[in-house]
Design brief:
The protein contains eleven helices and seven strands. It is of the alpha+beta class. Strand 4 and strand 5 form a beta hairpin. Its EC number is 2.7.13.3. It is an enzyme of class 2 (transferase).
């Protein structure tokens, strides 16, 4: 069954932690750390400036969190807020020292080293401004220490970015490897099993004709040849699924789409049409009249692979004529696709009723585009949610 996920080879705790560290949850964790450092910085600030320090720290927290979405614009906002507070209050804020390296780590996470170095240099200069005299105070030891602290933040962010890119590359390579293995297995099945069954079936049919004068023996031979044909059909259906592309592009013989969608609207329209052809009642809901997300082709194809498998699963596990809801909504810069269907016993055992990838592969495909996939069963309805990050959208 497509919903059964095999046991991971890695320890369960490690798997859960890694699956949870998506861009959205990383931003939330960063915000929590920034708030904690803000409170610590306000506590270490003189009493008369503690309120100002807390407010400035919260402003830095918001800017740092938004830096995951708009790193360049938020860099200007961070530096502007820091200089404005320095000129107005004329006192050093410890929260600035705490949060500047974290902000640079967020900037470095986007992987552009030249931008990281430039913004790090600006943060280093801001930290050298004496709040009382408003002049640069360059003393070798403090300046070097402050530069090291800023540098550590940049290195940590770049390290996380490198790790995320390697994980993404590993998932892409995993998909390609599975594709190759599927193709090899399908060829092996066809060449060894199907060919042998074909020869045996022909021999049985020849024997049936040869012993046509003996009705009982001829009947048994015909039953054996019919059984052989049935087995051949099942093996051919299996090889058909194995030949399906791991990216969801099939060979034209299954229910999946044979064409690559060129837009997100076309993708949703094709899924709606497919559900209608398969005797279901699709309902498409898009939140917001002007909400029309766009994705580049290299992002759109993995999305299509996931939605195709999800819709086929919805058909397989729902009763005929059931309403299947496809909803698309924005959420904090993300696009959330939700597919909901009532759950019944599997109504189809046809091996064509699958794109051949299943939940395990769907999660790995989602990882290649920094997306997140989760499922939920509530009140007899199965719900699959695909969270597409802001970085996956087409730049306008």
């Amino acid at each position: 069954m497509d919903r059964i996920v095999s046991k991971p080879s890695q320890p369960p705790n490690y798997q859960r932690i890694r699956a949870a560290m998506t861009l959205q949850r990383t931003a939330a964790l960063t915000a929590v750390i920034c708030v904690a450092l803000t409170l610590l910085g306000a506590f270490l600030t003189p009493i008369e400036h503690q309120l100002s320090a807390a407010i400035l720290g919260l402003v830095f927290t918001v800017i740092t969190t938004l830096g995951y979405r708009w790193p360049l614009g938020m860099s200007g906002a961070f530096i502007a807020a820091w200089l404005t507070a320095t000129f107005l209050v004329r006192t050093p804020f410890i929260c600035s020292v705490f949060l500047a390296p974290i902000f640079l780590a967020v900037v470095a996470y986007h992987g552009k080293h030249s931008r990281t170095i430039a913004i790090g240099l600006l943060l280093w200069i801001c930290g050298l401004i004496d709040p009382e005299t408003l002049e640069l105070s360059i003393h070798p030891a403090p300046a070097f220490t402050w530069g090291m602290l800023i540098g550590v933040g940049g290195v940590i962010g770049a390290t996380f970015a490198h790790s995320a890119n390697r994980y993404r590359s590993a998932m892409v390579e995993w998909n390609n490897d599975v594709k190759r293995r599927q193709s090899d297995l399908a060829e092996t099945l066809h060449n060894s099993v199907v060919s042998t069954l074909t020869v045996n079936t022909m021999q049985l049919e020849a024997l049936s004709l040869e012993y046509s004068t003996q009705p009982e023996l001829a009947k048994k031979l015909d039953e054996l040849s019919d059984s052989m044909r049935s087995t051949m059909s099942e093996v051919r259906a299996l090889t058909k699924v194995l030949r399906n592309n791991i990216d969801g592009i099939n060979d034209g013989m299954s229910f999946g789409s044979t064409t690559k969608p060129t837009s997100f609207a076309q993708l949703i329209s094709e899924e709606e049409e497919r559900l209608s052809r398969l005797n279901r009642s699709p309902i498409v809901e898009v939140t917001g009249e002007e909400f029309a997300p766009e994705f580049p082709q290299e992002i759109l194809e993995p999305i299509a692979a996931i939605t195709t498998e999800a819709c086929l699963n919805a058909v397989k596990y729902s009763p005929p004529g059931a309403e299947i809801l496809i909803s698309v909504r924005p959420h904090m810069g993300w696009t959330v696709i939700t597919i909901t269907n009532p759950v019944a016993k599997p109504t189809s055992k046809n091996t064509e009723m699958s794109s051949g990838i299943g939940m395990s592969s769907m999660n790995r495909i989602a990882a290649t585009i920094d997306a997140r996939l989760d499922t939920d069963l509530e009140s007899g309805n199965w719900q699959l949610n695909l969270f597409l990050p802001p970085t996956a959208h087409k730049r306008r």
